[in-house]
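Quick one, tokens below. Sequence please?
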């Protein structure tokens, strides 16, 4: 009888571990699919910008190509990583923001203030890009209604915030991106991804992680 109980408990534990592994694989697949969904859309917009820029300013178009190559080199190099250093993600987002500034000009304002001590902490790769892309996707970005993004650190969190000026004619948001980011972090840490929406702002706080604590 005791042997049967031990056997049953062992099988139950194995089943739980297998279920957790399958759930993680599913989450990673959804997260990767989300990145793959965003990247072609972003690339299409970038080529549209480049096609008009190349006849107006050769030097600026050359820098645009350099920054675009940096963005995709990072995406390729980080696609199989669970975590990257925050300083690596920030270097990537600098290049990414350059492309966005060429596209949106003065319609987009970004404040980037990262504490030096936080740059050696870790983040899920491309999660910052997804939050920036999410803000642009769901809000009006125009000269009359400037989108203001703030990317800062506090304690052991990366904080991404924007003024809220949601598109009126947009399709109802399924929040797939945010759900996948939350699921991704749920496998990395017990610290939650915080989402705060007020009448005039939208903020997401991502945990900054230490590898030895994972």
């Amino acid at each position: 009888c005791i042997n049967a109980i031990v056997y049953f408990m062992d099988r139950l534990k194995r089943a739980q571990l297998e279920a957790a592994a399958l759930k993680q694989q599913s989450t990673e697949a959804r997260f990767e699919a989300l990145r793959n969904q965003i990247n072609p859309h972003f690339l299409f917009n970038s080529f549209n910008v480049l096609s008009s820029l190349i006849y107006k300013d050769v030097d600026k178009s050359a820098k645009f190509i350099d920054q675009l190559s940096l963005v995709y080199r990072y995406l390729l190099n980080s696609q199989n990583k669970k975590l990257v250093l925050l300083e690596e993600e920030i270097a990537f987002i600098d290049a990414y923001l350059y492309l966005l500034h060429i596209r949106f000009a003065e319609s987009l304002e970004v404040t980037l203030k990262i504490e030096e001590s936080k740059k050696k902490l870790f983040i899920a790769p491309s999660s910052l890009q997804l939050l920036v892309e999410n803000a642009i996707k769901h809000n009006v970005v125009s000269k009359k209604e400037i989108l203001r993004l703030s990317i800062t650190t506090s304690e052991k969190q990366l904080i991404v915030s924007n003024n809220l000026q949601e598109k009126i004619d947009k399709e109802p948001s399924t929040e797939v991106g945010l759900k996948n980011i939350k699921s991704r972090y749920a496998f990395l840490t017990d610290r939650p991804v915080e989402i705060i929406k007020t009448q005039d702002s939208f903020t997401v706080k991502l945990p900054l992680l230490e590898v030895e604590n994972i």
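Residues 2-53 form the longest helix (52 residues). The beta strands are 84-85, 108-113, 122-123, 147-154, 157-163, 194-197, 201-207.
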